[in-house]
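In this section we walk through a basic example: taking a raw amino acid sequence and producing a predicted 3D structure, encoded as discrete structure tokens. The instruction is simple. Fold the sequence below.
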Amino acid sequence: MVNNKVNSNTKSIFSGLTFLLFFSSGCTSTVSPSPATAIISTQYCNSGIDSFDSNPENLYQDMLECINANNYQQAVLFYAKAGTLTWYYSLEEDSESNRIRHKTLLSDALGSLNKNQKEKLTHALGNNLNILRKRDLLCARIVLPQTSTVTTPGGFRQDYWDKAKKGYLHCQSIERG
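The resulting token sequence is shown next.
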């Protein structure tokens, strides 16, 4: 019974991710972009220690660099961190601009990917978010930033961070070290 409930929730999360990846990024061509608009692939991916950056724009750029380096596992981590941060900022300051920012940053990043990259990212996200044990491991890696690399008056609030992780990643249990 519990497995059926988890599988049902898992399928809905995966379906939502698939929809988001393929349809929110707008129309993209499978033809390589012109050199003027191409993302420069440095084959570099920040895969060492976890990034402490609290700027979602930078984290989405890190995600793209990992995708270009074919490191989808690390790309998933940057996806999770960036999305959780924009969700956090939407909770912290409930404004239309923050809600739009949450949607457009990811959409813009995904819009620069080709069809094959989107499929690989969708698979990696499904693999990490739809298996409860793996999702719990991912959730444990998404920790409250201790310092802000963007303007965050008063620092980060743990209660908003926990809500952002639960709302964006569907983290079931919030554990702190």
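Looking at the output, two observations stand out. Residues 2-8, 12-42 have pLDDT under 50 and may be disordered. Residues 2-23 form the longest helix (22 residues). In the next section we compare this with other chains.
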